[in-house]
Amino acid sequence: MTRFVPILSALVGLTALAGCRGQVSEEPPIVPIRNMYDQPRYDPLEESDFFQDGRTMRPPVEGAIAREMEPDSTIATGRTEDDSAWLLEVPAQVVQRGGGMEAVVERGQDRYEIYCAPCHGVAGDAEGLVANRAVERGFATLKPPSFHDDRIRHMPDGQLYATITNGIRNMPSYRHNVPQDDRWAIVTYVRALQISQASRSTAMNDATAAGSEEATQ
What we know:
Blueprint: H1 4-18, H2 73-77, H3 92-97, H4 101-115, H5 117-120, H6 129-136, H7 150-153, H8 157-166, H9 180-198, H10 203-216
């Protein structure tokens, strides 16, 4: 046993020394199983001698569209086909492929609570944690409007969708964060919030009701 330990130590030492080449070599490393380690390829932006235009990074094939790109421009933009007005309602195709209005609203609630509630509030009343923190820090101008404001209540669905898509003022675009149909689903949930809150006694609702009564007298 006592003779085995020195022999083992010597073997370990020789193995360690064998791994030290002692100098820099330009020879390629020895890779027993190469697989995809060394393969013919182009680096990004590298010049190509295969394509006639000399570009490695190829442009899309003419007529190709991204998987999530909507061929129907009205659904993609929230505008009518002649681009003369906003869509008044969520497109029927979106509701159909979402599994019906109930499923779409449920999906909209899920996405709303993730992406919208921090600023707009769970009830859509602009009392989200981020909005309230902004007010506390003296940045009241960053507080978003309430979805129960009369102006937004009468906003076409297409315009509300476009606002989510493109952003507005302090609100960033959610085009890349939220898929297209999910943006429409959020619109349906915002409408559900507005309907559910419309009958509640709030300062805004009471003022709106009082104004309507005065107008009819």
